[in-house]
Amino acid sequence: MQLTVWTYEGPPHVGAMRVVTAMRGVHYVLHAPQGDTYADLLFTMIERRQVRPPVTYTTFQARDLGKDTAEIFKRSAREAYERFKPDLVVVGASCTAELIQDDPAGIGQTIGIPVPVVPVEFSAYQHKENHGASETLYRLVRACTQGVAKKTERAPGPPSCNLLGPTALGFRHRDDVTEITRLLAQLGVTVNVVASLGASPADLARLPDADFNVVLYREVGESAARYLTKTYGQPAVTTVPLGVGATRDFIKEVAALAKVDPEPVLSQVNSRLPWYTRSVDSTYLTGKRVFIFGDGTHVLAAARIATEELGFTVVGLGSYSRELARDLRAAAAHYGVEALISDDHLEVEETIARLHPELVLGTQMERHTAKRLGLPCAVISAPVHVQDFPARYSPQMGFEGANVIFDTWVHPLMMGLEEHLLSMFREDFEFGEGAGPSHLGAHAVKERSVEAQPAVVPAPVAAPSPAAQQPVAAAPAPVVKPEQPAGAVVTSWTPEAEKELKKIPFFVRGKARRNTERFAQERNIAQITLETLYDAKAHFRS
Amino acid sequence: MNAIALPQADARPILRERGQHEVFCGLTGIVWLHRKIQDAFFLVVGSRTCAHLIQSAAGVMIFAEPRFATAILQDKDLAGLTDANEELDRVVSRLVLRRPDIKLLFLVGSCPSEVIKLDLSRAALRLSRALGPQVRVLNYSGSGIETTFTQGEDACLASMVPELPESLEGERNLLVVGALPDVVEDQFQRLFDALGIPVRFFPPRRSTQLPPLTPGTKFLLAQPFLASTAHALEERGAKRLASPFPFGVEGTTAWFEAAAKAFGVPEATVASVLAPAQQRAQTALGQVREKLAGKRIFFFPDSQLEVPLARFLSRELKMELVEVGTPYLHQEHLGPDLALLPANTVVSEGQDVERQLDRCRAAKPDLVVCGLGLANPLEVEGLATKWSIELVFTPIHGFEQAGDLAELFARPLLRRTRLMV
């Protein structure tokens, strides 16, 4: 048993729903108890989809268990086919139905539905949402390309590729697909099929027509890409075009596979990020200590953008995507940190509190954690929130995506001049820690000092009312204590040293206090004086 | 206002359906129950789906460490139940160490824990012995195979009934049963005080303040979905007072009058105590009535609040009821409300969501009350909707909230008249 207060990923059948909901002409018959229909609202409320997900739930109840739940499944499947007339039916079970072993896969083959029936089975007590999405996409690709022969000769026409990975309820998938399709068009490469966003089963059958595949979201698209490489010899582009550098690499990789010249596109890169990051105001970004957490694809990309394009220092990175753990560990080693592979948000919170970064790049959960810890934060990855489906065009990928990322990451930080003024006038009566960055509004600092934790405001997920953003009642909170070695010397501060500490800007004061105490403890200094404070400052500076 | 005659069970035909149920399971109740009982912790023994449901229904990530969590069953827990029990003990001890503020722990059963027959009542006994008296451990099932949405609260409260202390003092007392927002509870408390009726509320705000049962305890249900709780109280000798539910002026009046009659409060006292609040509520309703009168409304099943709310909308706001769907219809508890529905109103119990959608589209009502999974798609089809979950998460009981309750139904219609895009 795993004690879980909150989870980054839903169960695997929700991943399957993300794939089928993104498609046209597919219906999912899900053997599931009453209550599992909550998943519909993720799509209709968070993503504001205009139609219900194409899912029929059997919603069996306890009284059905003694009788024939398999019969309910058969009836639901037949009725769903009759009503929706899909081109393909996916059948499967949610976690509870998995236990009653009615074998929806087997039943699906025998009930005489005159279209292909594709079973997707997971081990729901082991796997999670992204695995479910990946496995479903792979099964559907296999089923729809069954009998499609490997091409001996490429068809005439411009080079083409498939985009693999985009789904419903994906973090900016909608806009990323638009951005990357445009970029490919500039290179003269057409998009053959996007799988699964917007594809029909017939479209999936055309996947082998493309010259190569582009995996946009590795957690979802990689299995299908591997299958297509193995079966149809299609190579796959695995550089994910997140950030300016990665987009340039992506262009080169695509150009090589498409046998086109990348130079015309590379020479007219239309992103403001390279200039903005070189403009003098950005000097203050140098060496900002960032902590990165999210899904594997976005974390790997964010670490590169942070270091190479914004001049930050990565002080920690991690992900809940265990499937990409190896790559994440390698990346962490490259940045000289350790990778935190975990789906326990409390562990992530502890790590952030310990590292005390100046910026957190994370998920919606880290946004809340950062708020509690008084740290600026930008959201870079799923799990999605209604705010991740903005009305405006807001991709993460490609050159426009790099612009969006620049804005999203830099805006939470203190603007350059403001930061300098703040450290010059430290304890100025109206400009101290009560003030906070002017562009974040008056509430920004109040949140910083909230020590009593926000409680659940009973509000539906998709309805973030202003009230829901406000901490209301006080549930006891986890007190995240800075690490203190057991049995260490108890250090105290002289009044002068304590006063001097207060002159340090509030957003680095916690770090300064901890560093100084560590410095003192390591040297068995029992009382921290002004001298100790500045000795420690010099020590950590060097 | 005159007392309402309480007629016999309603004889109207009920449309019963069995198909896809588009409803929440009973685990959802944890979202409001953990706010109500402020020293209780709810530990769901379930799957990742359970955890995902609760966080999706609970406004997701706006809490630090809430007083609920899921012990997610994993492959190895399914392999052997002995191990599952050991695992549960391990998880609970960790939890209790971490949260010394917890006085009452609910082990909440889920679909998977029910299917593998993990005996949580035995686990609760075992853990109570180990952790008592500091922490009491109770159990109930919020599983979707057994409970629909608000039935989770019913199961939770029913599990607490055996814990209620017995008392011989203060023979006459009234118990108001059902979780109410604190603001509503305080209003009710003031009115009962003015009537001279000794009242306690169940569930209490703190688990250490359980109301006692005396031989003369009478109880009023504040919520229409408390069948098992009422049964458990009756088993312990408490007597239920029948009444329409306290929504709107009419329902709230009848509800207080039922209590007043049982406690021998003179009619004149009742009239004078309730009059100011009644008048305020009438004024508030008057402002909304013109917006809603004559509008046709269709209820999809959700919380079991549908029948009393439909009664309120039909009688006090002059709305026309097309269909009143409810997940489960307790004929006895809802008898007084059912009897006040117009004769031609279709009342449906259970659900086949596709067929019900067909009926709804054909009827083209002015307003559809439905869950979040259906609301936006219906808006796209041109139907105005009111999310039913808001009716559970908003204070709507009593005189002072009657206007707010009416306003919830008027707002979607008002919005449509404003928008020009």
Note the total helix count of chain B: 17
How would you classify the helix and strand content of chain B by structural class?
Answer: alpha/beta
**Helix segment tally of chain A:** 24
Structural class assignment of chain A: alpha/beta
Stretches of chain B where pLDDT falls below 50 for ≥5 residues?
1-8
> Can you give the mean pLDDT of chain B?
93
* Helicity of chain B, as a percent range: 40-55%
Q: Which word captures the global form of chain B?
A: globular
Mean pLDDT of chain A: 87
Spans of chain A of at least 5 consecutive residues whose pLDDT stays below 50 are: 441-488
CATH class group of the domain at 278-420 in chain B: Alpha Beta
| Largest sheet entry of chain A | 5 strands, parallel
- Gyration radius of chain B, in Å: 22 Å
CATH topology of the domain at 278-420 in chain B: Rossmann fold
What is the β-strand count of chain B? 14
Structure overview:
- The complex is a heterodimer of chains A (542) and B (421).
- With 542 residues, chain A is an alpha/beta fold.
- Chain A has helices at 12-22, 39-46, 62-65, 69-84, 95-100, 104-110, 129-144, 173-186, 201-205, 218-232, 244-258, 263-266, 273-278, 296-309, 325-334, 345-355, 364-373, 398-410, 416-425, 443-448, 466-469, 495-502, 506-522, 530-541; strands at residues 2-4, 26-31, 55-57, 88-93, 117-119, 160-164, 190-195, 212-215, 236-237, 289-294, 313-319, 339-341, 359-362, 377-379, 492-493, 527-528.
- Chain A is built from 24 helices and 16 strands.
- In chain A, the strands form four sheets. Chain A has a five-stranded parallel β-sheet, with helices on both faces. A four-stranded parallel β-sheet of chain A has the order 3-2-4-5, sandwiched between helices.
- Chain A is globular and about 85 Å long.
- Chain A starts with a strand and ends with a helix.
- In chain B, the strands form three sheets. Chain B has a six-stranded parallel β-sheet, with helices on both faces. A four-stranded parallel β-sheet of chain B has the order 3-2-4-5, with helices on both faces. In chain B, strands 7-6-8-9 form a four-stranded parallel β-sheet, sandwiched between helices.
- In chain B, helix 7 runs parallel beside helix 9.
- Chain B starts with 13 loop residues before the first strand and ends with a helix.
- At the A-B interface, strand 1, helix 2, helix 3, helix 4 and helix 5 of A face helix 1, helix 2, strand 3, helix 3 and helix 4 of B.
- Strand 1 of chain A pairs antiparallel with strand 3 of chain B.
